[in-house]
Amino acid sequence: MTNGRKTIGAKLSGLTITIAAAMVLSACSMAPKYQQPEVFSEDAQFRYNNTNHAQIRAYDLGWQAYFTDPQLKQLIGLALENNKDLRLAALNVESVEKQFRIQNAERFPGLNVNGSKSRSRSAADLRGQNSDAISQQYSVGLGVASFELDLWGKIKSLSDSALNQYFSSREARDAAQISLVATVAKAYYAERFANEAMKVSQGVMESREKSLRLASLRYQHGVSSKIDLRQAETLVESAKADYQAQLRAREQARNALVTLVGGNYPSQLATASSLTQQFAYDSLPAGLPSEMLLYRPDIRQAEYQLKSANADIGAARAAFFPSISLTGNIGSGSTSLDGLFTGPNRTWSFMPQINWPIFNWGATKAGLDLVKVRKEISIVNYEKAVQDAFQDVSDVLAANTTLKAQYASQSKSTTAEVDRNRLMQMRYNQGITDSLALLDSQRQSYAAQMSLLAVQQQWLNSHVDLYRTLGGGLKAYSDGQVPTIQNTQP
């Protein structure tokens, strides 16, 4: 009995050593060493970058601190909590995480406990003279089922690939959150500016209706022609049509907000701030182009995809070499439950298997070529993500600077046009000028006011885009104190 126990112990010790050695060897990998592609030169710079603006970076600035409008912050909070697209992105992260855990578990042997009982009756002609008609067996064991020794790092490479896929899904979720914050802000501004445009259209419509009444009286008294009357009617109806267009834009912006917040649009909203005080900062530093690699989740997502493709090459290379799988079991068996755990009834088995590919070289080589091409695709996607991000930031910086100057000029022009229209109305009322000059003045004044609103909306949207493109929108609150609200009127 003692010798039997020593033999079983020696076998079990050998199995343990073999598994431990396999786990040590699994640290090896045939994947090529990862190198980050070079995408920026050392002297790469952004134009229109406010390099002297020593402020907190967008990545570290929480959206609760950047946006200062209580109503907008309420809507952003609801969207982050209830938006269906963001929820799907979060569930995708969870799904990929579970896939990684499954793949990573294959690097370690799985131990299974099994137990069984069997009871049977033998035919009289088939059993011995002193054998019982009814027999029973009990068995219990602890086993390893088909554990592959990772001699060439295939399992490790597949695990690394799955891990980077998980990291990539997390970055995709972060990118979705940043995009959601920006989209809610733009939809909010679209609704606010549609309301402002409706007010302008309403004022113009009332003014034109007064002019129409005056033109009707002048026509009735033979002072003006019917052409003047029809032109006044045309302008009134045109103002009414513009009002309906702005009403449609407002309702569509509201519908977009309802969808973005998950359909739970609040009946009570916080008090809205002035459109001239929407941001804590009127500009944000872009830094160096290379810093986008740290702050942009879409770029990090593309890089994790590249790392995953790089790890797949290691798994494809390992497929050329033989694989060894181990199956083993130790336990005990007996015809009675009392004798199940006695020494003489111990059992064990050890069944190594080797699989060496011989006649599938072509398919294995094609598999390796495929993952290499996929890595090249991932490199191109990464470089494209960086280039698109560079253009994104450059466009926003240019827009942020030029829209400020454009708004200043447009504001002066609108003030002059509104005043000119007031003076023209006075001259028309006194009979100094004709209706054609008045109508032309009204059209230009109205167009100038609408253009001013459009430029102001673009300017606010450019601030949202600047915050988004520089990686802002992930944090709700900034590290440190909330900055002082500044007047963001250009």
UniProtKB/TrEMBL annotation:
It is found in: Cell membrane. Residues 1-22 form the signal peptide. Its main location: membrane. The chain crosses the membrane at residues 12-32. InterPro entries: MdtP/NodT-like, OMP_efflux. SUPFAM superfamilies: Outer membrane efflux proteins (OEP). Keywords: Coiled coil, Lipoprotein, Membrane, Palmitate, Signal, Transmembrane, Transmembrane beta strand, Transmembrane helix. Residues 229-256 form a coiled coil. It is a lipid-anchor. Belongs to the outer membrane factor (OMF) (TC 1.B.17) family. This is Efflux transporter outer membrane subunit.
